[in-house]
Every structure is written in structure tokens, then in C-alpha cells.
Design a protein that fits this description.
The protein is mainly α. The chain contains 13 helices and no strands.
Length: 287
């Protein structure tokens, strides 16, 4: 676990210092792989399983080479390429720094979840919700599965999301194959999303987050795997900060202010996750 935490810190540091690394995330070879195998449920399972098993084998083999240095390097590379495919902070900054309303709205579309067929509306609730989902899919789910399964877990999550999204469509996969992958990806998102909620409760207003969580699940028609609760809870956490005077907006209709506040809230959520991981590492050392 200590090496995993170190790999995460190095990967996050590299991304922060060199955001241009995102341009090297090319998955063109995987499109051909998906297109060749993922035509049915068995083919999809095989298309996902082979890269995951390769990643697991490499991580296991490199762990014992040069005192684990090569294993650490491999884990960092997997994380750097597993985050994304675009950098969350870069897309948020593009919205915040756009010079006019038209370009701000255009930049915000980069945060819109792929499965939504309509443009992202320019209002605080829509933008905060979409950004929370983007944070889950681009970073926190990758971190969770890396913590749990190492590089193989990060590869599993990213590959599944690629099949479910535009890369799957580009590979010629039919809607049924992409729907199956989306279902698997939503299952993989479920626990990380709830851990994000817990961290938001600790990092923002616990009562506001708890009320939003209860209200969302009390609404008829909600399904267990629907990630919409994260959107509602992120909005509640940001609004609570604004209403308490702790946020970067003066009212809850200030789109850019709420987006700025959410960006800082997500940073605090990341700190909570890393702090908990550090406690697990320390507990392992002193056990």
C-alpha cells in the first residue's frame, strides 16, 4: 500500500507540473482491439480481461525488480495514462478563464458526460453536477481501483469507460456492447462515488450533504447505479459553503463562483482520500 500511495503522489505531481502529458493519451490501438473482440458479451469480457491480466502480470513481475523501482515506475505510468482522458483542472480552467459567455459555454461542453445527447446547460446546477461526475470518472474511480487492485484495477476501469464512451463508438461497437460496458462502468463507479460523498460530508457541510443524499434516494424511480446522487450532493455541498460565506461565490446562481468552489471542494476531497490512505499505510506499519 505504501508504494501505491507513493505512485499516486508522484502521478498527481506529474500531472500538476506537466499538464501537457494529457496529449499523449492515445488509445487508437485499443479501438482496433475493441472492434475485433467486443461484438458480444463474451468478446467484451475477453477484450477487457486480456489488458487487465497483462497489467497485473507486469506489476507482479516488476515488483521484485530493482527493489520495486520498476514496479513503481510502471504504476506511475499506468496512473498518468489512466486519469482522464482529459485533465479535469485544465477543462475547469478553460471555463473559468474564457473571455466571453459564448466561449465559456463552449468550454463547459468538455465536462459534459458522454452519454448525454444534449449540450450542457449554462447554469450552476448543471455545471457543478457534470463536473462532479467528470471528477469521479477521470480521477476518483481510477484512484479507488488502483488502491484496491493496483495497476490492473486502474486499467480495468479506464478500459471499461473507453468501451462505454466515444472510443467504443469509434471502434464500431454497437449500442448494445457499449450499453453493457456502461453498466459495468457504473458498477465500478458505485463505491468510489459513495466514498466521494463521505469525503464531501467531511470536507464541506455534513448535514447538507446528508440531507441531499437522503432526498435523492427518497425520490421514486431512482436506481441503485444511477450516479445522479453525486451531482445533487456536490451541488448541496457547494451551496452550503456559499450560504455560510465560505465559498467563492456570493449567491448560488453564480455559475463561475460555484464552479470555482467545487474545484476547491474536490481538492479537499482528494486530500481526505490521501489522508485516509496514509492512515492505512501507517496502521499497516504499526500493526
Amino acid at each position: 500500500m505504501a508504494l501505491k500511495l507513493l505512485a499516486i503522489l508522484i502521478a498527481l505531481g506529474l500531472i500538476a507540473a506537466l499538464p501537457q502529458l494529457a496529449r499523449y493519451r492515445h488509445f487508437g490501438l485499443l479501438r482496433g482491439w475493441f472492434g475485433a473482440l467486443a461484438g458480444n458479451a463474451a468478446g467484451l469480457a475477453l477484450a477487457l480481461a486480456v489488458p487487465v491480466l497483462i497489467a497485473a502480470a507486469l506489476a507482479w513481475w516488476l515488483h521484485g525488480v530493482l527493489l520495486g523501482v520498476l514496479g513503481l515506475a510502471f504504476a506511475v505510468v499506468v496512473l498518468v495514462f489512466g486519469f482522464g482522458p482529459c485533465e479535469l483542472e485544465t477543462d475547469i480552467d478553460a471555463v473559468l478563464k474564457a473571455p466571453d459567455a459564448q466561449r465559456r459555454s463552449a468550454a463547459a461542453q468538455a465536462l459534459n458526460p458522454e452519454e448525454r445527447g444534449e449540450p450542457l446547460a449554462w447554469n450552476a446546477a448543471a455545471l457543478v453536477g457534470a463536473t462532479a461526475i467528470a471528477a469521479l470518472r477521470r480521477r476518483f474511480s481510477v484512484l479507488f481501483w488502483f488502491f484496491l487492485l493496483g495497476p490492473a484495477g486502474a486499467v480495468l476501469y479506464r478500459m471499461t469507460r473507453l468501451v462505454a464512451g466515444n472510443d467504443g463508438a469509434a471502434a464500431g461497437l454497437d449500442a448494445a456492447a457499449r450499453a453493457r460496458a456502461a453498466r459495468v462502468a457504473d458498477i465500478l463507479d458505485w463505491l468510489p462515488a459513495h466514498l466521494m460523498v463521505l469525503a464531501m460530508a467531511l470536507a464541506a457541510d455534513f448535514d447538507a450533504v446528508l440531507r441531499a443524499w437522503r432526498a435523492w434516494h427518497a425520490t421514486p424511480g431512482r436506481t441503485a447505479l444511477d450516479p445522479g446522487f453525486l451531482e445533487s450532493i456536490a451541488q448541496a455541498g457547494v451551496n452550503a459553503d456559499v450560504e455560510a460565506g465560505d465559498g467563492y461565490a456570493e449567491d448560488t446562481a453564480d455559475v463561475l463562483g460555484e464552479l470555482t468552489d467545487l474545484s476547491h471542494l474536490l481538492g479537499r476531497v482528494l486530500v481526505v482520500w490521501l489522508a485516509l490512505a496514509a492512515l492505512v499505510v501507517l496502521g499497516g506499519w504499526f500493526a
